[in-house]
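Private note to self, pasted from the team thread so I don't lose it. Backbone tokens:
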């Protein structure tokens, strides 16, 4: 298949399906076709030259990153949609690997929420039921992959923004180790970066294909990872959440069944599966919300821009702007201690198995109908297992699980596999084994 044929196929899928699922904010069809034609000409002119890893593969980027020739709205009416002059680092890496950019996928305003709804374009919707959210903030990417508008997609994850939409859309979603992807922000002693770049795919093999292109310089870490060589893993199963000190965390029956189903499959594969008695320190809700809001408020906006924000984004920025530098520094220091305590407990296991979410995808608009402070709490209760992984900096993979007794066309539940730092490729291998077993 030529690059042009692949590009035309996916553009046609977008034309048909995007009005129903809201995966794309914009497409750059003309530019994509030009890129694909140039790849085909280059291949015809040099047939013996090795092809780059993603040659001709159609992709799209979340509307939080700049891609040459495409507008970047950050999911907000406050930004004019002028085309970017050049690629951000990650799109540049994928373009050099041979990928063709088709457009920009839907996200939440500034990536703040676990659902992809904003005032710029229609919401990203679940492939199983368009009345339900596709999750967020990488919801457009997930909806596109799940409905065949894209083969795979990059995303970003600051508190669950890859794993939440993976769960809502029945996909594999990998949130890497902090610092594993070369283009991501590095951790510094005075900061605590939460957001990393990762992948969404329909299988672990597809996820690995894209992830190898995103993190090519991490091959030594892949080769050195002990989990890849281990014949038997010690896997801890946990339903504990750091939010449980302050919130009422209740996991739905189908998500509990999915965890049990995977635990049984892991035992059948020869691994040791035990209950993990994780005891999270208190005050996580206060610490995480303070960091989340204060990080957002590090970006300055004009009064005219703030007036165009959604109520939730404006509330988040104003709350963060009211946090002083001393309080922010103290919060980061406390969370770093918190993360070390949690990592020490997790280190008793090769992999930690948890639900990805507390329950199924929520109706579109249900979070936005809440007052902003209640909205934040509702998101934490729905996704109580994801953000702690970002704080610790560990890798985590979400994968769909549909127990045998489930209805054939039902949306699958999702489990989360949390590894130790730099075990990213091992999590993909473990997911592949589970896919085969299940």
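Design output:
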């Amino acid at each position: 298949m030529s690059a042009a044929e692949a590009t035309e196929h996916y553009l046609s899928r977008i034309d048909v399906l995007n009005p129903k699922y809201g995966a794309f904010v914009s497409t750059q069809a003309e530019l994509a076709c030009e890129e694909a034609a140039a790849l085909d000409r280059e291949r015809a002119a040099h047939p013996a030259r090795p092809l780059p890893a993603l040659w001709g593969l159609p992709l799209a980027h979340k509307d939080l990153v700049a891609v040459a020739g495409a507008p970047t709205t950050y999911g907000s009416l406050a930004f004019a949609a002028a085309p970017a002059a050049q690629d951000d680092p990650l799109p540049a890496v994928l373009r050099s690997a041979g990928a063709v950019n088709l457009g920009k996928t839907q996200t939440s305003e500034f990536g703040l929420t676990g659902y992809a709804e904003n005032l710029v374009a229609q919401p990203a919707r679940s492939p199983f039921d368009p009345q339900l959210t596709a999750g967020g903030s990488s919801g457009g990417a997930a909806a596109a992959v799940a409905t065949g508008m894209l083969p795979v997609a990059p995303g970003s994850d600051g508190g669950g923004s890859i794993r939440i939409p993976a769960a809502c859309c029945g996909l594999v979603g990998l949130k890497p180790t902090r610092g594993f992807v070369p283009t991501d922000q590095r951790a510094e002693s005075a900061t605590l970066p939460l957001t990393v770049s990762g992948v969404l795919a329909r299988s672990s093999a597809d996820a690995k294909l894209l992830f190898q292109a995103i993190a090519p310089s991490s091959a030594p870490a892949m080769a050195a990872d002990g989990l890849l060589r281990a014949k038997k893993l010690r896997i801890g199963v946990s339903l504990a959440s750091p939010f449980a000190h302050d919130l009422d965390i209740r996991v739905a029956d189908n998500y509990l069944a999915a965890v049990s189903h995977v635990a049984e499959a892991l035992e059948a594969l020869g691994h040791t599966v035990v209950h993990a008695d994780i005891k999270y320190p208190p005050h996580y809700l206060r610490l995480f919300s303070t960091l989340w809001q204060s990080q957002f408020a590090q970006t300055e906006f004009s009064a005219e821009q703030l007036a165009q924000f959604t109520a939730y984004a404006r509330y988040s920025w104003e709350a963060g702007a009211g946090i002083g530098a001393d309080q922010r520094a103290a919060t980061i220091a406390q969370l770093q201690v918190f993360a070390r305590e949690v990592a020490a407990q997790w280190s008793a296991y090769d992999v930690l198995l948890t639900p990805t979410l507390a329950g199924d995808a929520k109706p579109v608009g249900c979070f936005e109908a809440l007052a902003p402070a209640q909205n934040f709490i509702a998101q934490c209760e729905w996704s109580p297992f994801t953000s702690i992984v970002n704080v610790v900096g560990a890798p985590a993979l979400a994968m769909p699980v549909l127990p045998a007794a489930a209805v054939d066309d039902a949306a699958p539940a999702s489990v989360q596999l949390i590894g130790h730092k730099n075990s990213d490729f091992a999590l993909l291998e473990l997911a592949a084994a589970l896919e085969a077993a299940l």
